[in-house]
Amino acid sequence: MILGITGGIGCGKSTAARACAARGFALIDTDALIREQVLTAPPVVEALRHRFGGDVVGAGGTVNRAALASRVFADDKESEAELHWLEALTHPVLFGLWRKLLAGDPGGRWVVEVPLLFEQGLENWFDFTVCVACSPAQQLARLEQRGLPRSLAGQRISKQLPLARKIELADMVLWNDGSPAFLQVQVDQLVASLSATR
User: Fold this and answer.
1) Among 105-109, 125-129, 153-157, whose mean pLDDT is lowest?
2) Does the structure show a pLDDT above 70 at 14?
3) What 3-state class would DSSP assign to 1?
4) Domain that holds residue 147
5) Helix residue ranges per DSSP H, the chain
6) Domain ends where: 84, 107, 130?
7) Which residues contact 78 (CB under 8 A, 6 or more apart)?
8) How many other C-beta atoms can be found within 10 angstroms of the C-beta atom of residue 15?
9) DSSP annotation of 63
10) Quick one: 80 and 114 in the same domain?
11) Closest C-alpha among 28, 157, 38 to residue 91
12) Residue 149 forms part of a structural domain
């Protein structure tokens, strides 16, 4: 069984995915794979250096993720084109890593955290899709608590499919406006319902 967890930025995808992992699912954290393996792969680093120069890739070959984000998440047409270019560069590498991990235990129970699951049309990868959602006010408050200014938070949110649409598309929804304990109860119910389907 492969469970895809998505939702808006700041809605609690990572918390829900870790909760599933604590209940026996093998976790694939897409953001961690991007950070630790995709953005360190020499062909990717070289392509980024060629495209963006030294402000994004330092002399030691390390990608400055904050500088890269400022190039692809700004609110203009040029950054939109740069974001599409970046996705075309990194997603094939990411999907190759997924395939390798999933092939290691094809009969296992997997949870994959995928921020852009619906934006990238990845529904067919998963047996079930779950959207973690919360109110816009809660979403912005959490992003500000992470140190992301409200203006930048708004830019990131605007680059994603509207949360209401993700809720419509998902097989199941976890509503994360309450306490951490309330989210954990919902994950328990989710895991129980999935176990009943097997």
Assistant:
1) 153-157
2) yes
3) coil
4) 1-25+109-191
5) 13-22, 30-33, 42-52, 65-72, 77-103, 136-145, 150-158, 163-169, 180-197
6) 107
7) none
8) 16
9) B
10) no
11) 38
12) yes
Same domain (yes/no): 181, 138: yes
**Final residue in a domain of this structure, among 60, 77, 107:** 107
Query: In Å, what is the CA distance from 150 to each residue of 7, 123, 153, 158, 181?
Result: 19, 30, 5, 12, 27
Flag whether 196 is in a domain. Answer: no
pTM reported for the whole predicted model: 0.87
Question: Which residues 6+ apart lie within 8 Å of 138 measured at CB?
Answer: 10, 176, 177
On whether both 148 and 121 belong to a single domain, the answer is yes
What is the rounded average pLDDT of the residues 140-169? 84
Contacts (Cβ under 8 Å, ≥6 apart) of 165: 118
Evaluated on CA atoms 3, 175, 91, 40, the torsion sign reads negative
Question: For the chain, what's the residue count?
Answer: 198
> Does 73 lie in the same domain as 48?
yes
> In this structure, which long-range contacts are made by residues 98-103, counting pairs with CB atoms below 8 Å and at least 24 apart in sequence?
98/28, 98/33, 98/125, 101/28, 102/2, 102/28
Considering its fold, how many domains does the chain have in total?
A: 2
- Comparing C-alpha atoms, which of 48, 58, 59, 7 is closest to residue 30? 7
HSE, side-chain direction, 13 A CA sphere, residue 2? 18
Q: Quick check: 176 and 15 in contact, CB under 8 A?
A: yes
**Strands, sheet with 2-7, edge to edge from the N-terminal-most edge strand:** 26-29, 110-113, 2-7, 128-133, 172-175
Rg (CA), the chain: 17
For residue 113 the two structure tokens come to: 């955290």
